[in-house]
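2024-03-11 09:14:02 INFO worker-7 job=invfold-0412 stage=load source=structure_tokens
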């Protein structure tokens, strides 16, 4: 059962702003040019679900980053 919290609210906010969910629901990620924003997302995901993700180089204009979390079946 998931308990509602400020961490969960922030995760949802990040995902609806600059986040993405895979079509097959196997992963979700946040992309940003600001590492601080991604670090807050990373910390919230770990605090709420105790799962880690991976850092990737972002795509698009300029320098950006992605933090991707894969979800097991």
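2024-03-11 09:14:09 INFO worker-7 stage=emit residues=73
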């Amino acid at each position: 059962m998931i308990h509602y919290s400020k961490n969960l609210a922030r995760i949802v906010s990040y995902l609806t702003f600059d986040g993405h969910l895979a079509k097959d629901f196997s992963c979700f990620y946040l992309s940003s040019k600001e590492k601080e924003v991604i670090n807050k997302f990373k910390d919230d995901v770990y605090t709420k679900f105790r799962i880690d993700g991976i850092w990737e180089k972002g795509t698009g204009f300029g320098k950006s980053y992605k933090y991707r979390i894969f979800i097991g079946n």
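2024-03-11 09:14:09 INFO worker-7 stage=report msg="The first strand starts at residue 19 and ends at 21."
2024-03-11 09:14:10 INFO worker-7 job finished
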